[in-house]
Amino acid sequence: MSNGKHEHLQIKLAISGAAETGHCGIDAYDKGIALGREIATRGAVLINGATTGFPLWAAMGAKEKGGTTVGFSPANSEKEHIEQYNLPVEYLDLIIYTGFGFPGRDLIMTRSADAVLFGCGRIGTIHEFTIAFEDRKPIGIFEADWETDEEIKAILEKGHRENDKIIFDSDPGRLVERVMDLVRQDRVNRASFRFEPQPAQTPPGAALQA
User: Fold this and answer.
1) What is the CATH number of the domain that holds 22?
2) Beta bridge pairs of residue 97
3) Alpha-carbon distance 184 to 93, whole Å?
4) Does residue 79 fall inside a structural domain?
5) First CA to last CA across the chain, in angstroms?
6) Structural domain containing residue 89
7) What was the pLDDT predicted at 88?
8) N or C terminus: fewer CB in 10 A for the chain?
9) Which of 75, 79, 71 is nearest to 98 (CA)?
């Protein structure tokens, strides 16, 4: 059983995708579930925007495998999250209420992750991709029958900016593993930075005053 000392070393993978999924294809649900399962199976934490659709399906898959899920809400409270934004609270172990609306939520969620995985999406997904790209985050693009992967390819081709931290793959397990490998390459080698509690020091002159 973990004592919590090194739980911060768990890789945090954000899921970006459409909340409304009518354009995503008939197998998008199964693919979202599969992606979440692969994240949990590998011991990573799944992060999403505490929303419906593809990110929710991925969280469902992660919870099936006993994974940890964290949602970042655009609302400033659970009440606002449910009543104003009409968003779910299910399949999330923890919800962080950012209070910054959808654009601010996107920024906080993306920057809180070690890497971002993209499924079927719309304009909000492209917004999160742009943040991850500019922050040089490892990025995984889930290739499938939807158009999002091709749209991102077109953006990259016309953007004329190289980025060696973007992976395209149609296999969810392989995609997750390859992205996690990129994250590990970016990690600080903790071997030379071990923290050891130090004994309390007696201030100079304290012994003379006693």
Assistant:
1) 3.40.50.450
2) 73
3) 25
4) yes
5) 45
6) 9-185
7) 97
8) N
9) 75
Query: If you search the block for the tokens 């929710």, which residue do you land on?
Result: 56
The whole-angstrom separation of Cα 48 and Cα 54 is: 10
Residue 67, domain member (yes or no)? yes
Give the tens place of pLDDT for each residue, 64-90: 999 999 999 999 999 999 999 999 999
| Confidence class for position 1, pLDDT limits 50, 70, 90 | very low
Q: What is the mean pLDDT of residues 161-190?
A: 91
Q: Give the pLDDT score at 73.
A: 99
As a whole number of angstroms, the distance between CA 175 and CA 38 comes to: 9
Asked whether 137 and 116 are in contact (CB, 8 A), the reply is yes
Say which DSSP state 10 is in.
S
**Is 44 domain-assigned?**
yes
In a domain, 206, yes or no: no
User: Taking the mean position of all CA atoms in its chain, how far away is CA 71?
Assistant: 9
Q: What is the 3-state secondary structure (H, E, C) of 90-103?
A: CCCCEEEECCCHHH
The neighbour count for residue 14, using CB atoms within 10 Å, is 27
**How many C-beta atoms lie closer than 10 Å to residue 82's C-beta?**
14
Sequence-ordered list of residues with C-beta below 8 angstroms from that of 65, at least 6 positions apart, any chain = 36, 37, 40, 41
